[in-house]
Amino acid sequence: MNQNSKQIKNQQSGTLPQVKGPDMNDRDRVNDVLAMEKYLCSNTTIAAWEASHQQLHQDLIAIYNETQACHRELFNLMFQKGWYKLEAEEQQHLDQAYQQFSNYSTQFPYGSTLQ
């Protein structure tokens, strides 16, 4: 894994063209399927929330789990090939967010669940 400034990424594979043309390459195809999986995950979740029949709800949850697993595999593939990069967050910002939400926990009606 390469960490350049605040980017977390792997070295990009050499299979992509230097100049992007109108044709789809492997990265474009995987990115397209990843976007579709995100869409399917979101909408399957909504359908499961609103399913009035228990068996339908369970079937939708099973579909969601399969879709989520596919999404994760595609994300891992893109990350391994260097086609997906993340931005590292500064520890100070993480500490501030943790403190902010820890303070909210005092408002929980049954006590804090944050340690």
In terms of structural class, how would the helical and strand content be classed?
mainly alpha
- For the secondary structure, the number of strands is 3
Helix content: 55-70%
Mean pLDDT over the full residue set: 85
Largest sheet: 3 strands, antiparallel
> Would you list the SSEs in sequence order as H and E?
EEHHEH
Strand content: 5-15%
Total helices: the number is 3
What's the Cα radius of gyration?
20 Å
User: What gap, in angstroms, lies between the N and C termini?
Assistant: 31 Å
Give the overall shape, derived from the CA principal axes.
Answer: flat
Task: For the largest sheet, list the strands in their spatial order.
Answer: 1-2-3
Taking pLDDT < 50 over at least 5 consecutive residues as the criterion, the unreliable ranges are none
Protein architecture, described:
There is one protein chain. This protein has 115 residues and is mainly alpha-helical. It is 57% helix and 7% strand. It is built from 3 helices and 3 strands, in the order E-E-H-H-E-H. The mean pLDDT is 85.
Present the secondary structure layout.
Blueprint: E1 2-4, E2 7-9, H1 26-50, H2 54-80, E3 86-87, H3 91-104
Helix pairs in contact: 1-2
